[in-house]
């Protein structure tokens, strides 16, 4: 368990070092998140409708 935690901590530390000096724009991040969320929901709805129409 401890080894897994240390690996995840190392991955986070590496990511943080790469990202810490980059500018973060909340509006852009939210827009990207919402676009991605809508895409996932659309694909799920299409898959659901296909499954319903087969039965």
UniProtKB/TrEMBL annotation:
- Superkingdom classification of source: Eukaryota
What name does UniProt use for this protein? Uncharacterized protein
Q: What is the source species?
A: Meloidogyne incognita (Southern root-knot nematode worm)
